[in-house]
Amino acid sequence: MPGGLSVRVEPRGAAAVAGLVLLTLAAGIVLIGSGDFPIAPADVVATLLGDGTAAQEFVVQDLRLPRVLVAVLVGAALGLGGAVFQSLTRNPLGSPDMLGFGQGATVGALTVIVVFQGDATAVAGGAVVGGLVTGAAVYLLAWKRGVHGFRLVLVGIGVAAMLTAVIHYLLTKANLVDATRATVWMTGSLEGRDWTQFGPLLAVCCVLVPVVLAYGRPLRMLEMGDDAAYALGVKVERTRMVLMGSAVLLVAAAAAAAGPISFVALSAPQVARRLTRTPGPNLAASLLTGAALLLIADWAATNAFGERQLPVGVVTGVVGGVYLLWLLVTERRAGRI
Q1: Half-sphere exposure (CA, 13 Å, Cβ side) for 261?
Q2: What is the DSSP letter of 326?
Q3: Taking Cα atoms as reference points, which of 328, 144, 330, 171 lies closest to residue 237?
């Protein structure tokens, strides 16, 4: 493992992680039981353990469980990816939402929809390719005897602006059916998600999450600056490249599974940092916070507005926009922007 594994445990951090695990489990059970066919939490647990009725097993196992599991993995991938980028840039605004990676995945997906009229699998592949190409472009454009956080943020914002223009161009070239399909995808939704989306996303997370967690100690050293990290024996550029590549792929895979759900990657690491009150990237807490936030947002999207269900991306966009304004005001008062 790069840099070895640290055995130091912060009591508050450990308690926060344990609480987030319980919150994620509770939110998942409540979400599985919500809908037109309500199921009590105790019955949800019994059904998951194989002791439910035939109707309950169909609703839980075939309809709702895969959606909840996709939500957990998407939220975890976004939360972890956001924590990596905010640590690498040493900036709370340095999330994939701001650096253009979500826009890159959107351009890839829209290209498949508008130009090639591809199916859902092709759209998912286009989102992954678009995210990876954008990540490589941002890294290369930000390179100048290394990649530094401030330059990465500036390049990412510029790339995001250009990709947004490309998105608008693709929408103007689409016919009505493709434009509608593209708009629905761009909103970000967990509606209709099943085991088809869960399998590939699980495989990506099983490979990349351990890689990112293994680099948690070098990432914490990078937060002190490149010179300090070099002095402590960290291979700075290799570490940064591995972490950036892993985070970009996690965010792209999340977008491929559920569309570009905004602001989870921005807010989850900051919420996790305030819960743990410990220095460093807080990778595990950010991962769990992202999962819990997306589950709660999906519950609100499907239950808080009566019979009218909203895409989860609408809820995260509204809440995340308010949070972003609060973060900007806080950072300005602190003199950091």
Answers
A1: 41
A2: H
A3: 144
Distance CA 101, CA 19 (A): 30
Total Cβ atoms within 10 A of residue 3: 18
CB 219 within 8 A of CB 3: no
Q: Which residue has the tokens 């956080």?
A: 149
Tokens 């995945």 belong to which residue?
A: 105
Q: Which of 178, 105, 115 is nearest to 138 (CA)?
A: 105
**C-alpha 212, offset from chain centre:** 14
Whether the Cβ atoms of residue 94 and residue 119 lie closer than 8 Å to each other: no
* Range 11-333 has CATH code 1.10.3470.10: yes
**Which among 21, 10, 34, 120 is positioned nearest to 76, based on CA atoms?**
21
CA distance 53 to 73: 28
For residue range 97-146, list pLDDT tens digits in order.
Answer: 778 888 888 899 899 988 888 888 888 888 889 988 998 888 888 877 66
The alpha helices in the chain, defined as continuous H runs, are 11-33, 41-48, 54-57, 65-89, 96-99, 101-114, 120-142, 149-173, 176-187, 195-214, 216-222, 226-231, 236-258, 264-276, 283-303, 312-333
Enter the tokens of residue 58: 């169909």
Q: Phi first, then psi: give them for residue 168, nearest 5 degrees.
A: -65, -40
CA–CA separation, 226 vs 238, rounded Å? 12
The DSSP code for 144 is S
Encoding tokens for residue 57? 């097993």
DSSP SS3 for 20? helix
pTM for the predicted model, two decimal places: 0.88
Q: Please check whether residue 290 is in contact with residue 80, taking contact to mean a CB–CB distance below 8 angstroms.
A: yes
